[in-house]
Write a structure and sequence with these properties.
This protein is an alpha/beta fold and 539 residues long. It has 2 domains: 357 residues, Glycosidases (TIM Barrel, Alpha-Beta Barrel), CATH 3.20.20; 135 residues, Trefoil (Acidic Fibroblast Growth Factor, subunit A) (Trefoil), CATH 2.80.10.50. Helices cover 26% and strands 21% of the residues. The chain has 12 helices and 24 strands. The strands form 7 sheets. An 8-stranded parallel β-barrel has the order 3-4-5-6-7-8-9-10. α10 crosses α11. The longest helix is centred in the N-terminal third of the chain and has 20 residues. The chain starts with a helix and ends with a strand. The N terminus is likely disordered. The protein binds 2-acetamido-2-deoxy-beta-D-glucopyranose (8 copies). The site of one 2-acetamido-2-deoxy-beta-D-glucopyranose has 2 residues, from loops. Belongs to the glycosyl hydrolase 5 (cellulase A) family. One of its GO terms (biological process) is polysaccharide catabolic process. Keywords: Glycosidase, Hydrolase, Signal. This is Major extracellular endoglucanase-like.
């Protein structure tokens, strides 16, 4: 009996574990959430961009490793989907050219040898057949695919001068664009792996007008939806997909495409102004400015009665870790991505390109994979992205909300190692401790206990205590970014903040809060003190 009970418990736990990971297709929307149409359960898009839209007109990297192998690695690194880009002319003009012919035209001899070695099946396929074959391999590997119309001409995207920026630009014929959308929608009608089509990447340039945006986007969205009502239709805004306020000015009258409409947005360290803004401004100020701008320009679409999902279809950083501005941007934006539990696609998977901007075998330092496509570029990749990849909020769950304490710079979470020692450390977020918190000036309680977090003075680690209402046990999120968790004294100084001891330590100490005030000359790196309380009802 004992054994049987234990056994059924294990089986049940097993089923619950896997049912939380699996879903059926197609997808739909429910308010701000993307859900499994059949069950209504949330499906979080955790995608990686994998380009296929440059002159080679073939998904990158097939000269380096077998496609199936690469697809398995995407899965192993905990992505569930690929944003697979294409150029309109690949299907409206060059659809029947073979991959081999195209590589010969571009004189990509070394790449062709690599293709013949690792993925010979693509060489005699046409451009369209190869795109479809890639979708099939990604799909059978368990990945969802978003077919992203990236640009008209097969070439690197996107600049203000490339003539591909907005409807009516030199290389952006709206009829040909619609024809491209039709061809893709029809071709993948019966392939459930293609869960979404995006209308057009990064609309931009002088001819961009909100009214025209409304007109053409309405045509594109209804064209896709009429051919394939099962898939999600993803719509970008203006100014390189940084700005969806066109939807405020000229709201689409699409009735949410019967719960298939999703908006997308992009954000990089260099969006808007140059990335040096993350170095030459107080970090808390610039982080809060960037996030407030993001909310006002884009995130409003997922609020209120007309809420629609917002998909962050591009963001990323130099994965070699040498770009300080990018690192700061990622910490700042990661805190927000987990707080709102947004759907996203990282740029990008590719360690290199066959051909880009006149160069052969060009490296992509934003690539998850290294130049050789042999391994991840950043050894800390899984740790950095672990919490972002986790579904944190499930609108269908009846479990109550708790908080995790997330440290975006390390990607780790606060954990109580040992209730006897009553100390906290940073560790793998899958082992994070859960906390309850009622907001500024209240204690942070270890969930389901009477213990709270108490500061013990400068340079000392905080500890778990039953003394929960003194000055040292009530916490406030301070600074413009609200990313510093501080205990404040009545003397009204800047207070003491949680801080990761050093880059090679998992200890957390109390130290004087850094650059949390209004001093515009305070340019220290504050990331060690950044902690975000992240709400979850799934873990
Ligand atoms: C490719 O060939 C098919 C079948 O012959 C034809 O219907 C289609 O129009 C061709 N596409 C292009 C872009 O030439
Ligand atoms: C492509 O080549 C393979 C053999 O490598 C052959 O089986 C197949 O029929 C060819 N496909 C086309 C469309 O020529
Ligand atoms: C989809 O598949 C069904 C059954 O295999 C077939 O009858 C139908 O023609 C296909 N539709 C398209 C648009 O390919
Ligand atoms: C890439 O491959 C080349 C040739 O095999 C090798 O010399 C080089 O060290 C590799 N680079 C990386 C980053 O693995
Ligand atoms: C975190 O822990 C989980 C489960 O124990 C494990 O699968 C994962 O690889 C760990 N992640 C890191 C970055 O160590
Ligand atoms: C949550 O509670 C509602 C109402 O009590 C119930 O209908 C639903 O099945 C519950 N959901 C889960 C996932 O347990
Ligand atoms: C996570 O917790 C489990 C159970 O307490 C333990 O076995 C495992 O070693 C922990 N993993 C990490 C990375 O701390
Ligand atoms: C950790 O880094 C500090 C400098 O940041 C160094 O002094 C210390 O020796 C390092 N400790 C270990 C265990 O590597």
């Amino acid at each position: 009996m004992g054994i049987t009970t234990q056994f059924s418990f294990v089986v049940l736990a097993f089923i619950c574990f896997f049912s939380s990971l699996s879903y059926s297709l197609p997808l739909s929307t429910n308010g701000r959430w993307i859900v499994d149409s059949a069950t209504g359960h949330r499906v979080k898009l955790v995608c990686v961009n994998w380009p296929s839209h440059t002159q080679s007109m073939l998904i990158e990297g097939l000269d380096r490793r077998p496609l199936k192998d690469l697809a398995n690695e995407v899965m192993r690194l905990k992505f569930n989907c690929v944003r697979l880009t294409y150029a309109t002319h690949m299907f409206t003009r060059y659809a029947n050219r073979t991959v081999e012919e195209n590589f010969d035209l571009l004189d990509l001899r070394a790449s062709k040898v690599g293709l013949a070695l690792h993925n010979p099946f693509v060489l005699n396929m046409t451009i369209f057949e190869a795109y479809e074959a890639v979708v099939d391999v990604l799909g059978t590997s368990g990945l969802m695919v978003i077919a992203d119309n990236h640009i008209s001409q097969p070439r690197w995207c996107c600049s203000l001068e490339d003539g591909n920026g907005f409807f009516g630009d030199r290389y952006f014929d709206s009829e040909e664009w619609l024809e491209g959308l039709r061809l893709v929608a029809r071709r993948f009608y019966n392939k459930s792996a293609v869960v979404a089509m995006s209308l057009r990447n990064e609309l931009r340039g002088a001819s961009s007008k909100s009214k025209d945006w409304n007109k053409y986007v309405t045509q594109g969205a209804t064209t896709i939806h009429n051919i394939n009502p099962n898939i999600l239709v993803i719509i970008s805004g203006l100014n390189f997909d940084n700005d969806l306020r066109c939807q405020r000015q000229y709201p689409l009258q699409l009735n949410n495409l019967h719960n298939k409409l999703v908006f997308e947005v992009h954000l990089y360290s260099f969006s808007g102004e140059s990335q040096s803004k993350f170095i030459h401004n107080p970090l808390n100020k610039i982080c809060s400015k960037i996030i407030n701008g993001f909310v006002q320009r884009a995130e409003f679409v997922m609020e209120g009665a007309e809420a629609v999902p917002l998909f962050v279809s591009e963001f990323g950083l130099d994965q070699t870790g040498v770009n300080e501005a990018d690192d700061r941007f990622l910490s700042c934006f990661s805190a927000h991505l987990v707080e709102k539990d947004l759907d996203w696609a990282l740029w990008g998977w590719q360690g290199s390109y066959y051909y880009r901007q006149g160069k052969v075998e060009l490296e992509e330092v934003f690539g998850v994979l290294n130049y050789n496509w042999s391994d991840v570029r950043n050894p800390r990749f899984s740790q950095m992205f672990q919490l972002l990849q986790t579904m944190l909020q499930d609108p269908n769950s009846n479990s109550s909300n708790t908080y995790l304490m997330y440290h975006p710079q390390s990607g780790q979470c606060v954990q109580v190692h040992d209730m006897k020692q009553k100390e906290i450390f940073l560790n793998n977020c899958s082992n994070a401790s859960h906390w309850s918190y009622e907001g500024d000036g209240t204690p942070i309680m270890l969930a389901s206990t009477n213990f709270c977090l108490k500061a013990n003075g400068n340079g000392l680690p905080p500890s778990l205590s039953r003394d929960c209402f003194g000055e040292q046990s009530v916490w406030t999120a301070i600074s413009d970014s609200k990313l510093h968790l501080a205990t404040l004294t009545k003397q009204g100084n800047n207070g003491m903040c949680l801080e990761k001891e050093s880059s090679n330590s998992s200890r957390i100490l109390m130290r004087s809060c850094v650059c949390v005030g209004s001093d515009s000359n305070c340019l220290q790196d504050t990331q060690a003190q950044w902690f975000q309380l992240v709400v979850t009802n799934t873990l």
